[in-house]
Amino acid sequence: MRLKNHQIVSFIICFSFSGLSLAASPNIVSASPKGIDSSWVRIRIFEKLKQVSIRGEQIVVVNKADSFRNVAIAPLSQKKLSIELKRKWNQSVLFLQKDNGAPSMQTTSLFIKGNDLKIGAQSINNFIQVYKRNDSFDVIAYVNLRDYLKGVVSSEMPANWPKETLKAQIVAARSYALFMSEKRKNQVFDVESSIKDQVYRHTDDPHLEPLLDDTANMVLFDENRNLFKAYYHSECGGQTSSAKKVFGDSQSDVEVRDPYCQGRTWRMEIPKREIEKYFGPFKQIVSAFNPIRRAYAVDVQRADSSFEAFDAQKLRMQIGSTRMKSTWFESSIHGDKIEFVGKGYGHGVGLCQWGSRQMGVMKKSFKEILSFYYPKTKIVSLN
Q: Are residues 343 and 324 in contact, defined by beta-carbon separation less than 8 angstroms?
């Protein structure tokens, strides 16, 4: 759906003055007439490093982001750059070791340009920032939004899934990235490359190109014509969760009954003492299991029979999101161990990837998929 003319004008004015970091980062290029997909996103690839080795071709180091556009890559630029954080003059200092020559010292964060840059086995694109903190540094990649979406969707979904499902994932991922870039416009990065935001791995696979063309510049807006933070997850198990109740996100308080996702059962056993690191000593966990939805809180009974409530999602992240696959579970104590039996995979908010796959198999369009999982949103083109 498209906004009416007066709504479009209103949005463009707000969007132009919002200072979205995507269009300005890091003055390497400006957004082209092709739209927002031609702008840039800042991705934190690594954090809290003490040292790193960057490999590539024609590596050039500059001190300011706006120097990128003026840097001519010399034919004899180095192919390897080692960076280490050391203490000198009672402050943290970046030491650079190039292919040849003595180490050089920099007290500021650095911008690095090169071809086929890699850290270990991971490709990190051609523009990165080494951002120095007090006692460590982060590595932030600057990536064209379209290429970023390719890396996210190829990491989140198999390439052989229905095309309409992949299109829905593209629009959700773009909406999430733009929302976070606006939220973090005054920070040094827009999104994490992990499940903290969206999983991203660089790819040159061209199979998503036509799907990106079909959904170019499309995003989701909420009822108040704001960019929508489009959460998504693997399996809802038949019922999605409220973003407000899971994350405290006031933008969405929607739960959807999902007949397209059946949800697989999972089981895990964990030593009681490991749970006590989070809860403290307890007598038992009173399961908040509900046959039609996952738990938002877990009640813990103490030795004196008193009860205390804990956030279920925080418990899951504390234990490990790949171990405790969801908060849709019931528990039982067997001696010094606790058994959890549940269903679904992920936080349960927003689009269910396996449910959207089934909708794609049933020939539902990407717009139908998005409308089902985000029922109070509109699909808007930012051309």
A: no
